[in-house]
Amino acid sequence: MESSLRAGVALYTAGDYHAAHEPWEEAWLDLPDGDDERLLHGLIQFTAAIHHARQRNWSGAVGLAAQAQTYLVPIPATHHGIDTEAVSVALRQLEADPERVEREAVPPLLYTGRPLTAADLGIDGITTAAAAVADEYDPYDAAIIESALDYAREEATGSQSKFIGLLATFVDDRNHRAIVYDRLRQHVERRQAKAEDVSGLFDWQVVTCLCRLGRRAASVPPQSILYSSMLFSVNAKRVKRR
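RE: above sequence
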């Protein structure tokens, strides 16, 4: 749950209010009833209320803000690093005046007292947040992002961090996301082309080896082949007797 919670907070910080619910919802669906379930349920409703207000769906924002409070108010004032009391205050203000999002900044969502970015996350959080961004917006090729996620997971066990860094920036930098995606695409395509070159080289080496073996076999006199076959049969019988 913790990784999903942090990934959603990072998406909220980046301004992806609607996408933020995806990591939370995935974790929330598996939780039994309790404070953890209510926390994620309330945060899902909170970000949905913010999203609807920014879309000028005032009635939808008011209804969601009211529902979110029913989940967050009963749980501790701070739960899993989230200041639920501050979120509840923001929800009450949004319920009373949803148009305030057009006059002032969206209320922050803090984790242990500070905003989170993808750069603050572990590999699981980064890949979760990046996948949510890719799912949210059409321009991004899912196959490219999926390959980038796989390469980033490989890097997490080694010393490289190229894909990890690009994916974190892909999440955090909304203003330059298209540029970052293009760099990701280029690196993925280079990596795939390199893998294909290596595979092709291996295949060619196998073919070359088989051709050489074929030429050598063709140059062996038939009587030598017959003698080798007879010797093999005799040795096999001796092994059997033992």
